[in-house]
Design a protein that fits this description.
The structure is a homotetramer. In chain A, a hairpin with a 2-residue loop joins strand 1 and strand 2. In chain A, helix 4 packs across helix 12 and helix 5 crosses helix 12. Chain A is built from 13 helices and nine strands. In chain A, strands 1, 2, 3, 4, 5, 6, 7, 8 and 9 form a nine-stranded mixed β-sheet that branches. Chain A is α/β, with parallel strands linked by helices. Chain A has one domain: Rossmann fold. Helix content of chain A is about 35%, strand content about 20%. Chains C and D meet through helix 11 and strand 9 of C and helix 11 and strand 9 of D.
Chain lengths: ~300, ~300, ~300, ~300
């Protein structure tokens, strides 16, 4: 039913409702809204096959934080965002606070809208070697390893394959994958963080479904953390057409104009930088429960 | 008459013809087409006030090279592009091959679609100090200085002001300014180089007309070299609407969706890198007539 | 009398005493020590021609902060260092808190031990355009412009010439220049910040004395802020020889081994990064007296 | 017998001879010299346990190319260097030209003298995915994957472990590892490439022997390609002392002056950049025998 691609379960649900009529009830899906540290948080639960089919996504929990206040640089916006993300991540982690974790940054470091994953990995507190080598100082930390998996074009190896190879060797108790997503609505670009307990299929966003990273393939929980950084150019044009009352237009009418083009904020470099830091810090606060933002800063500086 | 912004005189002329009807004659404007090293070159001459008003640009010569073959990596595409650009630049330079030149890269180095100017300056053969200090080896070169002018947000000084300050002190006989442009048609983005003998107004593209860089303000010829790297998101949507037969739609129908958004190729980093090198090499070949691409490579490596 | 080059007045005075005997009194020079925010601060005042000749530096005040605690990441080491620097800079600035300032980063951005100047400029709060354009919000700030002057090899223009050109046009009431220095003692490398009210001669450290930046040439006070990031390889070897009791060795005995080589900390990238931030923040706190470190962070983020 | 550390077998042999007297014969070691593309090439073969003990390195073949002409930018210096390296690498590769290879860049990308490995990997033609996915065009190429293994501090995983994990999964028929080395003589820094068929122990240079990468651990031939980019500061001082006729000085006399300090060329950034390209291109020419430098350039551009 969905013609227009989105990686956000929240948007998929809205699109379903738009096409089915607001009165219709979305089968096999529950959703709830709340505020966390002042930011709106929506939780969409896809419960069964009906929900999977309606939204085109695997069953599981999808949590969306809307961080509009971050760009407006509201008071303590960064700290509140990192703590809100940590609060959503924490229940998805193994109970044992010393169970080892692997943080994976997916995407191409050389392409700005695609490098939020590698940049978030740069902000991760890497402790695995310290816990092993300097246990007298770091024994209380959870062992955390980090990996920027690169992209097929620069490694010749699927990032899914690479992560599986490393996970098999170092045997983490959970994996957190950070990736750039595509949204359907321009107003969500660089404003939204989605946390999902379903794992991720690297490159699925660009039509190259590759080796999935999830509990089936890795044998441990895989938490996906994503930020939409682009909208397909074709998607933008359809939004506008819809707004102008021309919903009947077919995709093919959009022609080739949108081929290979993306829509992105003018200051994408700054926005990706800021969001990668929020994600890295949120991960750190979730993986090492006792720490404050200042502790993280001191560790990473 | 033009509602839709473009920095390309070629596009402005096409838009005029579209709105006036193909039969109408564009007053005060001459144009001609030819092939140069296999690439189409269009020269638009705005002759007088009628042409200025019709196209919304100052009188002067605007030369457009269409480098589609470059992205397809055709045989010797880079060399032919650099030589074609050099051939168009050469007649605009002072006759004296030793008259000093200043190359200015405009734009923000930290923002990919805006950093083609600084990157082209990086590829410029800087010889001014060598001609002065090692005349026995470099006495035959034209003295060339290069300046990446930064942006107001990082310097606190208008780039126009900065260039004027430097030009007054080092007194070049001509100035070449490289900048990113905005196009109206997505198919011209990162495919087109425009050379104009009219100078440039930094930031005019984004609604901030600042101190112009032209023969009036600098007292010497100012050649502007520009590449469109983005299309306003609103412009794209209108292209699609037009294609879909909804030309009657008014801009305001596009609403706020396009605010602060740009449309750009997915691989903008690579494309800007390639084009900046073409421009730098084209400038070098034009400023130092005897050199080959290999000579330039050896000098810069 | 000094055979071994140092940019630090503190070291020059120590070398003088070593060669003259500890009992000898250094003529025309006063010095004093104190603690500032826990860091040792030494002030050397060269009072007259006798002091100038003895230390090989122009008359003026040279303040040295020794920031060893910074590398050890002592508690609040960064904040204390930035505030200590600000406290030393403040008395050298014009009294009027709204008198405009120009911050200049000297050195080559592409060479790690030489890029502390450009990096410090990146951490400067640039306000000149905001004070002009948005006086209702920024009217209370001092107008500050920043310039990374590049190097002769990449611009073809002496950085001294460039700074003079810009200063003549924007007419600041004072100039602060940040540059990398050479020390004689390896233990001062990346541990020391020198503030001098005498200005600076860019490139003097590497045997290329160029256009000086000082009150004579710019017509306003010029404060030089420098950090030694390298020691000449030949200097290191002499230190060792001296330590081994072979002080009688002549420089020529060191032969060609040291030609073009520098001695630098293994983690120079990190250390320059940290020190550039200390300097940028110190400058900001001095130029905008009411601000805290947190305010600066918010402005720059 | 060797007090002073070097990663170069060539230097180790010279040091042995210096300490044993020129007349003494180095047991269990053969060496030979020749010219390749105008560059001197020395092959040192450690034949047995006597040789291993004398030189402190495992038995195997160590080939040293001395590329002094490269820095002098002699005619076609780059092309000759890449072809000379390829000619030395070729006999060490599996005979089957389609046997898959893995190229590994060791070292810390953020530290200039340590990033020659990751940078050489950037210049590698990665073909593994193309051979699989587009066999009609790339079927004739050898499948090559590339990996920049990061460092323990940023990943929490030994690079040896990481490479083993990836090699186990993608099963190359040979591995080529590129790493920065330490030399004893400053005149070899950034002038020498060593090729060894013995594999490598990442981090062994800095006192952290970690998981070795060699035929034993990976099950396939491992070729190590290294460039000395630094000399320990203590080593330099000893060279000078020796030159000054004070060979009897003991290391401890050098005291703490050299702790954590390295000696490196002033223009290390440029030199590492150039050498990484020579290595990447040499690897490409060796792995894909029919190609020319121009072919490689076209592929990578």
């Amino acid at each position: 039913m969905l013609t227009w691609r989105t990686d956000l379960a929240l948007e998929a649900a809205q699109l379903w409702r738009e096409s089915a009529g607001e009165a219709a009830e979305l089968p096999g899906v529950e959703s709830a809204e709340e505020l966390r540290e002042g930011y709106p948080v929506t939780t969409v639960r896809i419960l069964d096959g009906r929900g999977e089919q309606a939204l085109g996504k695997p069953a599981g929990t999808y949590i969306t934080l809307e961080l509009d206040g971050l760009a407006r640089r509201e008071s303590d916006a960064f700290g509140r965002a990192a703590r809100a993300l940590a609060a959503e991540l924490a229940p998805l982690l193994p109970r044992d606070p010393r169970a080892p974790a692997l943080v994976v940054g997916l995407g191409n470091r050389a392409i700005t809208p695609d490098n939020i994953g590698p940049k978030a990995a740069d902000h991760t507190m890497v402790t695995r070697h310290l816990v092993e080598q300097v246990p007298e100082h770091f024994g209380a930390f959870r062992p955390v390893a980090a990996l920027a998996a690169g992209v097929l074009g620069t490694t010749g190896v699927e990032s899914g394959q690479l992560v599986r190879a490393v996970a098999e060797r170092i045997r983490p108790a959970c994996v957190l994958c950070v990736d750039a997503l595509a949204a359907r609505s321009v107003r969500r670009v660089c404003r939204t963080v989605q946390v999902a307990d379903t794992g991720i299929t690297p490159g699925s966003g660009v039509g190259n479904a590759r080796e999935a990273l999830n509990a089936q393939t890795l044998g441990v929980p895989v938490i996906a953390i994503g930020v939409p950084t682009v909208v397909d150019a074709a998607t933008l044009t359809r939004d506008v057409l819809a707004q102008a009352g021309r919903e009947e237009l077919e995709p093919h009418a959009l022609g080739e104009a949108g081929g290979g083009l993306i829509v992105t904020p003018r200051d994408i470099d700054t926005q990706v930088h800021d969001l990668a830091k929020v994600i890295g810090y949120g991960i750190n606060l979730a993986l090492h429960p006792g720490l404050t933002i200042q502790d993280v800063e001191l560790f990473l500086s």
